[in-house]
Structure formats: structure tokens, C-alpha cells
């Protein structure tokens, strides 16, 4: 798919030609009928909230921000723009009717929430212009749960940033803000009874010795909740338990199975140190926290997390094993279920219902718990199964809703195709599908600009999927409306990213040199590059010859602005580039790169990111590689990198074997020392030969898969992945 991308000025021209006087609306209303004429905004226009109690100051300020026109509020029952609440709106709780005529605008709804949606649509109709086209809209959402989750623990974000996101959520009719407040990397909410949670647990010591962190006071929490409510958004807090608790254990190590000491984590992944489920003080600790947190949030829901809780410490803990015996539990999985049920009882007693990630299914599920499904790869039928059990479901599958994933992995078209309701469910079971939620985990998102880049424009497709539902043949029309949103996003200062993969970089070996080509996958952007000896970007015109190892940076530009991430390609020129390579087992879908030659194309993988074409993956299989050369070569060393992140199901190799041949047919095994160096998330393997291997015509290399995922891993018993980027032969 090639996507047409335009600068904001060209976009405004394009929008006029495509839509005429019909502005872009995202999400698209349920029923819309365009009429002739326009309502003209002027400084004399007045707006009244009618019989509602809705404050209008925010709408008035946003309208001025967009159009430059300051309208006034009237205290009369009717004005140029009139809001009204009526009892009979057949479309539903969040429904509204918006009618724009040349002389007046009316918004009618069943409640304040509907009026807010109507005002959001009116803002989009106005866009950056004073002419609001005449239209008749009858609108209501398909799903009641249209959420965005923000993780503020891996990286901390101020209340001003949170407010900006609430404003953007309201603009696109998202109504649930899931606030992920605690993690191994930081505790972010003030608990007055346990001050060390924020004195110690909110701060981590980085590798350079600096302190990183922050937290929200309870007054700031109230401020955000009130701010969200004015925009029709419900805030759901998450205190993740019993795992992901190093922030708390660093402050109160006595609540662990081992007693610590612990430090707030500076790395990502899943810690084996969790709350001790056999210690009664743990339950009192959580109960005390809930008594402070729950009153801060009017929502009827409280998110307890419940995900990624390794059982290693519980297996070795006398208190946990005693709890298993005294409560007549089968194993540690039932101990986690016992923990969640016990906490749920406290939540219920405080007038709330729990939400938990789908791991709360393990060991037994309460009939009143709501499940947030993220592991669509774990059981593709899980959403339907949970609904048939009678439990409510929020669908947040990694395949469409994880906006921390890069655009190559999940592009706008994939998000647009997202449907939270599986086929084949009865109407009664479908009622348990509340909707969905896009998640923004912030391991690799350090600031607001990067949130913008990851979330936009994907969240536009997400809002459409949950509000209106999407069509198989509807993406092109949506794409045009999405482009129509870019000027207002620019004006709001949203640093949005691309909607699909921007470029593809390939290499080819010719005459002992590498030729590097970059291919743009979208239109109307310029491509530039910077070689190792350059400090500024140069226009890319032709294939680049790489004669020495180093890094080339390719960057797309839209006008004078960078567009999309730079494609940084590290090259290594080596003897393997000229080899003919064969593999017994081919790489596994979807991590096939450019095929077998990905292992000798000279491109090194990013040591912090395996999801690009420079890494290739083997699921459950090993690399059995044979290199052959037309002429004999001498070999001094063999090097390669493997990715190592067991949380992503990727394990280091179990064994390395090397054999060489002087005639191309008979091989001799080598016994040699292998040096292993850890570089971020990858392991660098290097074999240096004491004596240079001379006259080599062929080489065999076995990199053995790490085997099955270990016990207590979320995918325990499944085959692990082996990821390798380049096999460097010097």
C-alpha cells in the first residue's frame, strides 16, 4: 500500500477538492446527511447550554483556538447555538443529534455525555474555518468502552501531558482513560499511610548515577479526575499486583518472599520478585492502599493488573507453600487466583468491580470480574470464551492495540481492521464485549513527542473501529478523512508519526562491495541520507556503494520536517558477504527479513529492537548454516549477535558448533572458546581462532535454539524464538 502524504498547506487544498465543503470527521458519525449552505461563525454568535448544566468555557476556548473567533455564552434558553437534553433519544446513552442550518445550530442528547460528543463533532466541522457546513447528524457509538491506557511508570509524565491527552481523547470520542500507576520501574501515586512508596519507590537510579522518577499527589489525582469528567472521560486506575511490584518492594522489602533488599528497576521485562501471597501483612498493605486510592476515582472499576506474575519465589517460600496447603489450593496458579479473589472482595466492599489482564483467568475467575484481553496470540478464541462464561471483556489484542509497537509491526490499516467482537457469538454473549482499549506502554517512550509519534494517527483508526465499526472496503475513504485531521493535529502541536512503513533498505553484494538501496513506500516525501563521514543529510538519488564498515542513516522529509523514524543501518563488510549460504530450516513467519541472505547482507540489527528486517527469527528451530565460497579464503574469526529477551519469548542459543572444510565436502569440527558480550538486549558471540584457518572452501555453523520456554514463563512449554542478525566472517 502506498499512502499519499501531504504537507498541511497542500492538505487544505486537497481537502477542499475531495470534500468540497464537507470537513473530515473522525470517527465517522453513524448517520450523516449533508445539506446546502453554511453557518457562518462570527464574534456576534452566541451559544447557550439550554437546560443542561454543561460548562461551555472549554468549547468556546477550543473554537477560538481553531478558528480565531471568540463566540459568547448566552443565559437564554435559545441562542445561535443551543444545547438541550431530552428524555427520548432512541440511539442510546451517548447518542446525540446535531443539526447545522444557515441560521442556527442545535445539539440534542439524552445526557451531558451526548452533548459533549456533539460539541466534539461541531469542533471538527468547524476545523480551522469560520464556515460550518449545514448537516444533519444522528450519532451514537457502537461500543461503550473506548479506552486509552497510559503507562506512567516506565516513564513518568506530568499532569499537563496527561491533560493534553484527555483533550485529544475527547476530540476523538474516546471515553475511558486507563491510568497505569505502578510498576517495577516506579510507583506513581501518593499513599499517605506508606510514605516510602513515593519517597523510595517513585525514584530509580540510572546507570549514570542520576535519579529518575516522579509521582502524583492525591490532590493532583483529584485534579486529573475532575478534568477528565468535564470532557466525558472516566478514569480507571491500575495498581498492578501481585507482580510488577518492585517499586513497592524497594520501599517495603518485608512484603516479599525473600526480604530483599531491592532497587527500583532500571531495566524492562518481568521481575521474579513479587508480593508474598503467603504473608498476611501483604493483604493488609493492599487493603490500606485501596482505602486511600478508591475514593479518589468515581469510576465503578478498579484495575488490579494480575499479569506476568512469575511463581518462582512462591515455590521456594515457606509462607506461600503453607498458604497453598491451608487454603487447599492445587498449586501456585491457584494461589494467584486466591490472591486476586481476596483483593476483589475488598474492592467489592468499597463499591467497585475489578478489571484484570487475562492472566486472572488462570486458577479460576470470579463471575463479576471484567477481563482485559491482551494475549490474542495465547488463545485466539479467548474473547469469545470469556464472553460465553458470562464475564465482561475489554479487547486489547497486541495485534492491533499495542501502540508502543512500531509502525512496521502495526500500521494504521491493521488498526482500522480491528474488531473486538469475534464472529459466531450470540447476541446475548456479544453484550459482554464492552469494547476495546489501545495501550501505550512506555519502556521506549520517554517523552510526549514520542507518545504523539506512536499514538497518532493510529488512534484515529482505533476510534473509528469502536465508534462506528469499520468496513473491509472502507479504508480508502477513512484514509482521506484521516488526512483531513492532519492540519488540526499540526495546530494542536501533535507530533504525529507515519501511518505505515516509510521506507525499505536493501543490500546486495557485488564484486566484494555492498550496494545499498533505499525504496520509499509512500509518496510525496523526500529521502535523504547521511554516511559515516557526513554531518548533514544529502539527497538520496542512486544506490550507495559501501566499501567499509560503518553506519548510514536514511531519513524521510516532509518539507523541512523529518517524517517517520530514521532508518539507521549499521554495515559490516566481511567474507560472508561473498558466500553462498544455505539453511536446513528457513526463518519463521513473520520474522523472515529478506530470507536466508539476511544473515550475510552486511546489515546489523538494532541491539534494542528485534522487530525489523535486520533480525530474522526461528521459532523452535535452530540455525544450521552452510557457507560455501567459489575460491578458498582465510578465516580469523566468526561473530554474530543473538537477541535475548525471554519476556518476548526469545532465548539465547543453547549451543554453538563450528566445522570447516578445505575441499567443500568433508568437514572438521572446531573446538574453540566463544566469548560472549552483553549489548543491551542482545548477546554478541565472538570466536577468535588462535591460528588463522587457511584455504577454507566451506563452513558449517550450528546455532542451537534455546529450547522450550521455562516453567513459570507465561508461555511455558512453548518453543522459544532464536533471533540472529548477521553472521560475520572475517
Can you describe what's shown?
The protein is an alpha/beta fold and 730 residues long. It folds into 3 domains: 109 residues, Chitobiase, domain 2; 298 residues, TIM Barrel (Alpha-Beta Barrel), CATH 3.20.20.80; 227 residues, Galactose-binding domain-like (Jelly Rolls). The protein has an 8-stranded parallel barrel, surrounded by 5 helices. Strands 27, 29, 30, 31, 32, 33, 34 and 35 form an 8-stranded antiparallel β-sheet that branches. Strands 1-7-5-6-4-2-3 form a 7-stranded mixed β-sheet, covered by helices on one side. The N terminus is likely disordered.
> Which stretches are poorly predicted, pLDDT < 50 over at least 5 residues?
1-20
CATH homologous superfamily grouping of the largest domain: Glycosidases
Q: In the CATH classification, which architecture of the largest domain applies?
A: Alpha-Beta Barrel
Largest sheet composition: 8 strands, parallel, barrel
Q: Assign the CATH class of the largest domain.
A: Alpha Beta
The class by helix and strand makeup works out as: alpha/beta
- Total domain count: 3
Mean pLDDT: 92
Estimate the global geometry from the Cα principal axes.
globular
Radius of gyration: 29 Å
Largest beta sheet: strand ordering: 8-9-14-15-16-17-18-19
The CATH topology annotation of the largest domain reads as TIM Barrel
N-to-C CA distance: 39 Å
Beta content: 25-35%
Label this structure with key terms.
beta-N-acetylhexosaminidase; TIM Barrel; Chitobiase, domain 2; Jelly Rolls; eight-stranded antiparallel sheet; beta-N-acetylhexosaminidase activity; 35 strands; 730 residues; alpha/beta; 3 domains; EC 3.2.1.52; eight-stranded parallel β-barrel
Amino acid at each position: 500500500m502506498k499512502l499519499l502524504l501531504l504537507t498541511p498547506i497542500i492538505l487544505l487544498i486537497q481537502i477542499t477538492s475531495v470534500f468540497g465543503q464537507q470537513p473530515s470527521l473522525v470517527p465517522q458519525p453513524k448517520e450523516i446527511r449533508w445539506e446546502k449552505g453554511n453557518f457562518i461563525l462570527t464574534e456576534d454568535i452566541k451559544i447557550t447550554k439550554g437546560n443542561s448544566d454543561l460548562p461551555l468555557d472549554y468549547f468556546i476556548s477550543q473554537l477560538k483556538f481553531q478558528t480565531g473567533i471568540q463566540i459568547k455564552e448566552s443565559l437564554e434558553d435559545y441562542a445561535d447555538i443551543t444545547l438541550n437534553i431530552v428524555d427520548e433519544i432512541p440511539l442510546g446513552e451517548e447518542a446525540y443529534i446535531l443539526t447545522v442550518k444557515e441560521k442556527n445550530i442545535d445539539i440534542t442528547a439524552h445526557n451531558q455525555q451526548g452533548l459533549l460528543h456533539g460539541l466534539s463533532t461541531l469542533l471538527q466541522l468547524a476545523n480551522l474555518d469560520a464556515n460550518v457546513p449545514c448537516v444533519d447528524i444522528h450519532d451514537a457509538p457502537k461500543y461503550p468502552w473506548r479506552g486509552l491506557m497510559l503507562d506512567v511508570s516506565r516513564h513518568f509524565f506530568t499532569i499537563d501531558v496527561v491533560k493534553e491527552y484527555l483533550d485529544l481523547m475527547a476530540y476523538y470520542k474516546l471515553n475511558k482513560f486507563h491510568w497505569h500507576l505502578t510498576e517495577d520501574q516506579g510507583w506513581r501515586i501518593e499513599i499517605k499511610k506508606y510514605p516510602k512508596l513515593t519517597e523510595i519507590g517513585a525514584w530509580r537510579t540510572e546507570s549514570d548515577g542520576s535519579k529518575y522518577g516522579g509521582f502524583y499527589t492525591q490532590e493532583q489525582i483529584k485534579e486529573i479526575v475532575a478534568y477528565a469528567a468535564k470532557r466525558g472521560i472516566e478514569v480507571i486506575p491500575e495498581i498492578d499486583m501481585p507482580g510488577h511490584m518492585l517499586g513497592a518492594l524497594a520501599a517495603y522489602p518485608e512484603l516479599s518472599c525473600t526480604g530483599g533488599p531491592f532497587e527500583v528497576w532500571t531495566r524492562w521485562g518481568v521481575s521474579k520478585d513479587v508480593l508474598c501471597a503467603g504473608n498476611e501483612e501483604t493483604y493488609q498493605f493492599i487493603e490500606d492502599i485501596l482505602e486511600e486510592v478508591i475514593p479518589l476515582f468515581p469510576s465503578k472499576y478498579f484495575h488490579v493488573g494480575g499479569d506476568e506474575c512469575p511463581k518462582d519465589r512462591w515455590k521456594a517460600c515457606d509462607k506461600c507453600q503453607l498458604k497453598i496447603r491451608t487454603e487447599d489450593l492445587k498449586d501456585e496458579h491457584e494461589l494467584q487466583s486466591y490472591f486476586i479473589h481476596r483483593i476483589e472482595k475488598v474492592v467489592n466492599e468499597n463499591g467497585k468491580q475489578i478489571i484484570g489482564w487475562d492472566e486472572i483467568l488462570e486458577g479460576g475467575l470470579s463471575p463479576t470480574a471484567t477481563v482485559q484481553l491482551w494475549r490474542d496470540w495465547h488463545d485466539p478464541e479467548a474473547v469469545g470464551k470469556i464472553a460465553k462464561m458470562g464475564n465482561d471483556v475489554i479487547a486489547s489484542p497486541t495485534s492491533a492495540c499495542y501502540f508502543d509497537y512500531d509502525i512496521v509491526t502495526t500500521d494504521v490499516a491493521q488498526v482500522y481492521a480491528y474488531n473486538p467482537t469475534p464472529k459466531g457469538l450470540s447476541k446475548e454473549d456479544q453484550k459482554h464485549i464492552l469494547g476495546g482499549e489501545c495501550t501505550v506502554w512506555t519502556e521506549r517512550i520517554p517523552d510526549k513527542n514520542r507518545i504523539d509519534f506512536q499514538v497518532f494517527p493510529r488512534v484515529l483508526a482505533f476510534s473509528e473501529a469502536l465508534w462506528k465499526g469499520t468496513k473491509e472496503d472502507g479504508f480508502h475513504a477513512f484514509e482521506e478523512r484521516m488526512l483531513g485531521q492532519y492540519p488540526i493535529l499540526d495546530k494542536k502541536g501533535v507530533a504525529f508519526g507515519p501511518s505505515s512503513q516509510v521506507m525499505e533498505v536493501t543490500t546486495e553484494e557485488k564484486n566484494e562491495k555492498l550496494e545499498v538501496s533505499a525504496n520509499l513506500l509512500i509518496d510525496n516525501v523526500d529521502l535523504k541520507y547521511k554516511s559515516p563521514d557526513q554531518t548533514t543529510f544529502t539527497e538520496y538519488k542512486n544506490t550507495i556503494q559501501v566499501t567499509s564498515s560503518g553506519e548510514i542513516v536514511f531519513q524521510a522529509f516532509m518539507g523541512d520536517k523529518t517524517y517517520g523514524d530514521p532508518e539507521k543501518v549499521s554495515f559490516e563488510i566481511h567474507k560472508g558477504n561473498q558466500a553462498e549460504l544455505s539453511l536446513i530450516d528457513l526463518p519463521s513467519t513473520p520474522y523472515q527479513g529478506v530470507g536466508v541472505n539476511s544473515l550475510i547482507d552486511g546489515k546489523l540489527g538494532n541491539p534494542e529492537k528485534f522487530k525489523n528486517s535486520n533480525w530474522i527469527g526461528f521459532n523452535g528451530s535452530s540455525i544450521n548454516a552452510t557457507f560455501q565460497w567459489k575460491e578458498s579464503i582465510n578465516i580469523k574469526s566468526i561473530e554474530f549477535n543473538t537477541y535475548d529477551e525471554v519476556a518476548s519469548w526469545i532465548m539465547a542459543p543453547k549451543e554453538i558448533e563450528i566445522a570447516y572444510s578445505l575441499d567443500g565436502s568433508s568437514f572438521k569440527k572446531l573446538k574453540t572458546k566463544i566469548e560472549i558480550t552483553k549489548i543491551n538486549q542482545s548477546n554478541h558471540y565472538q570466536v577468535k581462532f588462535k591460528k588463522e584457518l587457511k584455504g577454507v572452501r566451506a563452513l558449517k555453523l550450528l546455532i542451537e535454539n534455546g529450547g522450550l520456554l521455562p516453567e513459570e514463563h507465561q508461555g511455558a512449554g512453548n518453543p522459544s524464538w532464536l533471533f540472529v542478525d548477521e553472521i560475520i566472517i572475517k
